[in-house]
Design a protein that fits this description.
This protein is an alpha/beta fold. The protein contains eleven helices and twelve strands. The strands form two sheets. An eight-stranded parallel barrel has the order 1-4-5-8-9-10-11-12, surrounded by eight helices. The chain binds ligand PBG.
Length: about 325
């Protein structure tokens, strides 16, 4: 009975033709990953050795010598930009976070050393008080627990100028205080740093995906959470409002953070703004892929590259990722 049956599909449109072999697939490919898009986040400390970070296998707190070695290795892998995150000793953490603008602080010293050794490496710095605050918050904390906006901005501008003075090429405020982009732009310009860019953490969410990062820096809030300044993960329209404000205040690039769980927000900002869009594949995203790989449950290399490609496809032309070096090596080896 069945032997004589045949079905002839009248089907002029066959999308599979554009997937039939590797050459045609390459013709049809809309997005590709390149180390040119990567910013490589590095943790630094004042210790004498590099220390592994438990919840981020493959990442370390780097001592000054190891930092230079890592920067050199990153350049060799084709990474052209790094962002620094300092682990501050408890003795240096205060309520007013003044270590943030110490011209001899860890970040400032590291910037000078990096600039001197690798003038071609684009140096990005994080502006926020959490690594320096005895309260573990990005802003100043009042006696009743409120996070003080304008008072905080007045400290952030000193931090930004001090980083620019030490050689930062791009200042990235991650604190989420209102008005900080405009204030930082004005302070940088007044200090003569008109060429220093601002990469604003525009849509930074109050996310559980930052857990491993806070372990790395021992920077978790001592009390409360960050929900009065970081965005509600339920919202995307609010990201448009933040983007409009940051643009008006003079931001050069806008960031969405985290990245993978917020692809819709990346796409939205890509559509509403002409500025380059960055996305931060954060510590928790990295840790989950690593863990899945180490357990043998997923193919780390393929999952990591797919996650990064998806971030790019969503509209990010800049990706901050702890996978930067590995991904660059994998890409060079053919993906
Ligand atoms: C702090 C800051 C955080 C991250 C970057 N800058 C943590 C936070 O806001 O609590 C997180 C990065 C990551 O998880 O990889 N201002």
């Amino acid at each position: 009975m069945l032997a004589g049956m045949s079905y002839r599909l009248d089907q002029p449109q066959r999308p599979r033709r554009n997937r039939k072999n590797a050459v045609v697939r390459a013709f049809s490919r809309e997005t590709s990953l390149s180390p040119d898009s990567f910013i490589y986040p590095l943790f630094i400390h004042r210790g004498r050795d590099k220390e592994p970070i438990g919840s981020m296998p493959g990442c370390f707190r780097l001592d000054p010598e190891s930092l230079l070695r890592e920067a050199e290795a990153a350049l060799e892998d084709g990474i052209r930009s790094i962002v620094l995150f300092p682990k501050t000793e408890d003795e240096l953490k205060t309520k007013d976070g003044h270590e943030a603008y110490n011209s001899e602080g860890l970040v400032q010293l590291s910037l000078r050393a990096l600039k001197k050794r690798f003038p071609e490496l684009l140096l990005v710095t994080d502006v926020a008080l959490d690594p320096y605050s005895s309260d573990g918050h990005d802003g100043l904390v009042a006696a009743d627990g409120r996070i003080l906006n304008d008072e905080t901005v007045n400290v952030l501008i000193k931090q930004a100028v001090s980083q620019a003075e030490a050689g930062a090429d791009v200042i990235a405020p991650s604190d989420m205080m209102d008005g900080r982009v405009g204030a930082i732009r004005e302070a940088l310009d007044d200090a003569g740093h008109t060429d220093v860019s601002i990469l604003s953490y525009t849509a930074k969410y109050a996310s559980a995906f930052y857990g491993p990062f806070r372990d790395a820096l021992d920077s978790a809030p001592k009390s409360g959470d960050k929900k009065t300044y970081q965005m509600d993960p339920a919202n995307w329209r609010e990201a448009i409002r933040e983007a409009e404000l940051d643009e008006a205040e003079g931001a050069d690039m806008l960031m969405v953070k985290p990245a993978g769980p917020y692809l819709d927000v990346i796409r939205t900002l890509r559509e509403v703004s002409e500025l380059p869009i960055a996305a931060y594949q954060v510590s928790g995203e990295y840790a989950m892929i690593k863990a899945g790989g180490q357990l043998g449950w997923v193919d780390e290399r393929r999952v990591a590259l797919e996650a990064l490609l998806a971030i790019k496809r969503a509209g990010a032309s800049i990706i901050l990722t702890y996978y930067a070096r590995q991904a660059a090596q994998w890409i060079r080896a053919g993906g």
